[in-house]
Amino acid sequence: MAKVIVYPPTSMILSDLVERMGHKALVVPESVRKLATADEIESPPLNVTPEEPKKGLRYAAVDVPSGVRGRMALIGPLIEEAEAAIIVEDPGWLTGCAGCSRTNELVRLLIRTKGVPVLDLSYPTDDAEAKAFVQKIKAFLGELK
Amino acid sequence: MIRVAQLSCGAEYSGIQKEIDRAAEKVGAKIIYPEVSLEDILNVEKKFGVSVASGDLNMAMARAVRIVENPELADAVIVMTCFRCAEAAIIRSEIRKFIHEHSRIPVLSYSFTERTTAETLLTRMEALVTTVKYRGLLARENQKGLTAGIDSGSTTTKAVVMRDNQVIGTGWVPTTEVLKSADDAFAAALQEAGIKKEEIQAVGVTGYGRFLVGKHVNARLIQEEITVNSKGAVFLADAQKGPATVIDIGGMDNKAISVQDGIPGGFTMGGICAGASGRFLELAAKRLGVEITELGKLALKGNYKNVAMNSYCIVFGTQSLVNSLSMGCKPEDVAMAACHSVAEQVYEQQLQEIEVKEPVIMVGGTSLIEGLPRAMEQLLQTKVTVPKYAQFIGAVGAALLVSGLLEG
């Protein structure tokens, strides 16, 4: 079983495909769940506090907007943990969205520079492309140990 | 309950949503999020004019469209995005303009960091709520009866006594102990007016120390300085009808207020750096060896272009000041450069966040430093009005507004 990060990192469709193939999907909802089910809820509903943008300094400098750093506090550790990655270009918001384009750019960069196997895909626009999309993911995940 | 629609990007992930909610709660408001569909977001360019790469900004624009099309959804709007995000800065400004142009809903825009607290937002949120809640009171044009106003500012405390639309007494003292300074300024205004304290029908209080002083003098009105100052400004400048822009460069922070018929429609309040405040001019006067009251007159004789000055930070600004003097620059040029530097920073950082419409009225003690309104005129390429009693603007606004409460 490999730990696979998906992009967009909020995509439940990609997460489901990874899990079905017996791997662990690294996705933002999991990080949010950890925060939101913590013993002390200081800032509902997500429980993101001003501490998160400070934790995000590990991934982006202080002159990067706080919203990017706060998001990176959730996504950054997932990238560190990842052993493989699936990146879907132009996914459309239905696939999942971090809400901030700067965060998206930084996430893609950090995944690509990590040096793990990456599957690059385009978002399908019809049934035939969708089938090929799933097949490519299946083949990629099948090769991971 | 006043409903403030929050159109934002990044607030939740910056960890400040709780602070925004807390500031709203403190002033009796509730933050709401107008519902939009995915289709509204996907079609935002057709109705708003642009869509951008960040989804949350597109959602903020879609919400702005929804509010404009359904103005009954919200009483006021706060547009908030991350500080230092260029994409967000453009959209924040465009959302503010869009709502301003297509509705009469008051708008506040603000860029935040993770250090933004409820206290930072409180005065702004209070002003936003006041413009909705006390619209009738703010529309008041005349002062009636015998009332007093106290402006407990960060640097100075001002008081006025007014009778039947006229200022009949003023008092001005540096702020030291907040209550003592208020008592002293009030006593001076009463003495000049020849009035006993007991004769005053009602007192209005504004400024940083408003809650403490308001309780102390049993004030009928305790109000933040944005609405009070704008009221005082248009009253004294005789600009109560139509648009106006009020600029107040204070001792600790600055306000730029876009006013329509005497009521604030949009405003900004800055105060991150003392380099663009009266404090820097005080420091400049001290270094030049002149009284602050003489700095403006000296500046009018000078040319700012002869001195490289940047007061973006008060420390570096002071360094520029010392360097220029040691290089033999003329004191009058340095004085004007200091005024220009402060005006330039207010122009760059705050006047871009509101609609600047004539007449432009400068108020507060700094407006009496003649070089400052002159520098602002040069930057805005328009005449800047400094009304009589400009330094007492908050106290006058408070005395005027509180007289409205005498009638019922």
What does this structure look like?
The complex is a heterodimer of chains A (145) and B (408). Chain A is an alpha/beta fold and 145 residues long. Chain A has one domain (3-143): Rossmann fold (3-Layer(aba) Sandwich). Chain A is 48% helix and 13% strand. Chain A is built from six helices and four strands, in the order E-H-E-H-H-H-E-H-E-H. Chain A has helices at 12-20, 28-36, 51-55, 66-81, 101-114, 127-143; strands spanning 3-7, 24-26, 84-89, 118-122. In chain A, strands 2-1-3-4 form a four-stranded parallel β-sheet, sandwiched between helices. In chain A, strand 1 (3-7), helix 1 (12-20) and strand 2 (24-26) form a beta-alpha-beta unit. The longest helix of chain A has 17 residues, at 127-143. Chain A is globular and about 45 Å long. The model of chain A has no long low-confidence stretch (mean pLDDT 92). Chain B folds into three domains: 2-133, 3-Layer(aba) Sandwich (Rossmann fold), CATH 3.40.50.11900; 146-226 and 393-403, Nucleotidyltransferase, domain 5; 239-386, ATPase, nucleotide binding domain (Nucleotidyltransferase, domain 5, 2-Layer Sandwich). Chain B starts with a strand and ends in a 5-residue tail after the last helix.
